[in-house]
Design a protein that fits this description.
Elements: H1 2-24, E1 29-32, E2 47-48, H2 51-56, E3 61-72, E4 77-82, H3 84-89, E5 96-99, E6 107-111, H4 112-118, E7 125-128, E8 131-139, E9 147-150, H5 151-158, E10 163-164, E11 166-171, H6 175-185, E12 190-193, H7 194-200, H8 209-238, H9 240-248, H10 253-289, H11 299-326, H12 329-334
Parallel strand pairs: 4-9, 6-8
Antiparallel strand pairs: 1-11, 1-12, 2-10, 3-4, 3-11, 5-8, 6-9, 7-8
Length: 336
C-alpha cells in the first residue's frame, strides 16, 4: 500500500505541479515546434526568435514571450532563458520576495522553493548549466521554471543563437480566434491553448504513464499476496495441533476458514494503518528536505490502495485457510 500511494503520489504531484506552473505564466496559447512534447524539457531549440514580430503583428495577439528551455544535467532541473520584459508582461509579472530582475548576463532569478532547497539568497552565486550565476532576485514559485536567466545567456550556453524552444502567447480575449490566426501563420507548428495543455497534463491523459502505474499497482498486489501467503502458511503450520483440537471439538471447515481469514483481515487493518502513517510521514519528510518535490496523495487512491491490499491479502490467505480446513483432526492431534 505504501509503495502504491507513494509512486502514484509522486507521479500525480509532479504532473499537477508542472500544470500549475505552466498556467501561472499567464499565457493563453503555447507555440512549439512540430512533433514537440508537452513536457517542455524535451523541447528542441529550433524556432527562430524573429517569429516574435510576426506573431505579435496578428490582430488577436496581445503579448508574445520567447523562451529557451535548457536542462541543467547536473541538477536535472529546467532553466528558462527569457526576455524579462515580455515574459513578465504575460501576467502581472513576478512576485519578488527579495531582490529584483536581472540586469546582467550572469544573473538569475530563482523561485522560493529552489532557493530554500539550495540555501540561496540575493547576491549569492550558484552553478547553473555549468556556469556561475549570481542571484538577483527570489520570487514566489508558480511561473514555469525554478530558475530564469537572460535569453541571450541561455542561447550562448546552449549554442542556439537566435533560436528558442517555444513562444508563450497571450491573446486579447478570444483565445480560439487567436489560435486560429496562429495556425494559419504557422501551419506546421504545434499550437495548443493553455486549456488543452492543462487537460493533457493528467495521468489519465498520458498513455505512457498508465502501464507504469499499473505495473506498480500489480507489484503492490503481488507483494501483499506473497507476504500474507507466507505469513498465514507459517501460522497454520505452527498451529496444526490447535486446529486439530478445534476440529475435534466440532468446528466446521467454514469456521476454520473464517478464523484464518478473520486473522488476515485484522493483520490487513493494522497494515493499512501503518501504511497510511508511513506514507504521510515520508511525504512530510520529503516536503521538508526537498521542497521542489511535489507529492499529491489523493483520497481516491487511498481507497483504491486499501481495496487492492485487501484483495491481495484475501487471495494470499485462501490457500492456508483451505489447507487448515481440510486437515485431518487425528493427524493434526498427532503432529509435533
Amino acid at each position: 500500500m505504501f509503495l502504491v500511494l507513494l509512486i502514484v503520489g509522486l507521479t500525480s504531484g509532479a504532473l499537477a505541479d508542472w500544470r500549475t506552473r505552466a498556467e501561472g505564466i499567464g499565457a493563453d496559447i503555447i507555440v512549439q515546434p512540430p512533433n514537440s512534447s508537452i513536457f517542455f524539457a524535451f523541447s528542441s531549440a529550433v524556432m527562430p526568435d524573429s517569429l516574435v514580430k510576426q506573431i505579435e503583428s496578428l490582430p488577436g495577439i496581445d503579448e508574445v514571450a520567447p523562451v529557451l528551455v535548457v536542462v541543467d544535467q547536473h541538477n536535472f532541473g529546467v532553466v528558462y532563458g527569457i526576455d524579462y520584459g515580455r515574459f513578465a508582461g504575460l501576467s502581472n509579472g513576478f512576485t519578488f520576495l527579495s531582490g529584483g530582475p536581472f540586469h546582467e548576463g550572469d544573473q538569475t532569478i530563482v523561485d522560493d522553493l529552489a532557493a530554500q532547497t539550495r540555501k540561496l539568497h540575493v547576491g549569492r552565486s550558484t552553478m547553473l548549466l555549468g556556469h556561475p550565476f549570481t542571484v538577483s532576485g527570489i520570487v514566489l514559485h508558480g511561473k514555469g521554471a525554478r530558475f530564469f536567466i537572460p535569453l541571450k545567456s541561455a542561447q550562448d550556453i546552449a549554442g542556439a543563437d537566435g533560436r528558442v524552444s517555444m513562444f508563450f502567447v497571450r491573446s486579447k480575449g478570444d483565445t480560439e480566434g487567436a489560435r486560429a490566426e496562429l495556425v494559419k501563420l504557422l501551419p506546421t507548428y504545434k499550437i495548443r491553448s493553455m486549456a488543452e495543455f492543462s487537460t493533457l497534463m493528467t495521468s489519465s491523459s498520458l498513455p505512457e504513464l498508465k502501464p507504469f502505474i499499473r505495473s506498480f499497482v500489480l507489484l503492490g498486489m503481488v507483494i501483499s499476496f506473497l507476504v500474507v501467503l507466507l505469513t498465514m502458511h507459517t501460522m497454520v503450520q505452527e498451529r496444526t495441533r490447535d486446529i486439530g483440537v478445534l476440529k475435534a471439538l466440532g468446528s466446521s471447515r467454514l469456521e476454520i476458514c473464517g478464523m484464518i481469514v478473520g486473522e488476515t483481515l485484522v493483520m490487513v487493518a493494522l497494515g493499512v494503518i501503518f501504511g497510511v502513517l508511513c506514507t504521510y510521514g515520508v511525504v512530510g519528510i520529503l516536503r521538508e528536505t526537498s521542497p521542489t518535490l511535489q507529492i499529491a496523495i489523493e483520497g481516491a487512491w487511498i481507497v483504491r490502495a486499501i481495496l487492492l491490499t485487501i484483495a491481495g491479502a484475501i487471495a494470499g490467505a485462501l490457500y492456508p485457510a483451505l489447507r487448515a480446513a481440510r486437515s485431518d483432526p487425528v493427524d493434526a492431534l498427532a503432529y509435533e
